[in-house]
Amino acid sequence: MLNENCIFCKIIKGEIPSKKVFENDEMLVFADIEPKAKVHLLAVPKTHFKLLSEAGEKERATIARMLAALPEIAEKNGCKNGYRLVVNQGDDAGQTVPHLHIHVLGGEVLGW
Ligand code: 5GP
Ligand code: ZN
């Protein structure tokens, strides 16, 4: 289920343009609009939920398949020497978009 007010749901539906690098029936990976590293991708499930704690069995299986797919996607998109995955969860982490997303950061040596 998608949410009509959510930016990432709109990107999934194609209502907001994005630079897509990978897509299948359950996930989309696209470039972050304000990259924090030379390579900055966002991987999102094609179902709307905010937090890992809200994921049911189906969503957890999707997340597992997303994690399994990301190494090849990262490597093909410029992360030849490693990358960082970040999943902000809630306000203290600074989560700004309430649709679960995995940041893929790389393409250079990353500081903290
Ligand atoms: P958060 O802070 O929620 O973990 O990360 C949200 C990310 O979404 C930010 O890095 C931000 O730059 C990115 N973002 C927000 N709006 C858009 C958009 O409309 N398009 C794209 N491609 N990225 C977006
Ligand atoms: Zn959404």
Q: Any key phrases for this structure?
A:
binds guanosine-5'-monophosphate, 112 residues, five-stranded antiparallel sheet, alpha+beta, binds zinc ion, HIT family, subunit A, 2 helices, 24% helix
Descriptive account of the structure:
By secondary structure, the protein is an alpha+beta fold. It has a single domain, classed as HIT family, subunit A (2-Layer Sandwich), CATH 3.30.428.10. It has helices at residues 7-13, 57-76, and strands spanning 20-23, 27-31, 39-45, 83-86, 102-106. Strands 1-2-3-5-4 form a 5-stranded antiparallel sheet, with helices on one face. A hairpin with a 7-residue loop joins strand 2 (27-31) and strand 3. Guanosine-5'-monophosphate binds next to strand 2.
Please estimate the helix content: 10-25%
CATH topology type: HIT family, subunit A
What is the CA–CA distance across the termini?
35 Å
How many separate helices? 2
For this structure, what is the CATH class?
Answer: Alpha Beta
Strand portion: 15-25%
Overall tally of domains: 1
Largest sheet: 5 strands, antiparallel
Name of the CATH architecture: 2-Layer Sandwich
Tell me the series of helices and strands, N- to C-terminal.
HEEEHEE
Break the fold down into its secondary structure elements and pairings.
Layout: H1 7-13, E1 20-23, E2 27-31, E3 39-45, H2 57-76, E4 83-86, E5 102-106
Antiparallel strand pairs: 1-2, 2-3, 3-5, 4-5
Bound molecules: guanosine-5'-monophosphate and zinc ion.
The site of guanosine-5'-monophosphate has 14 residues, from β2.
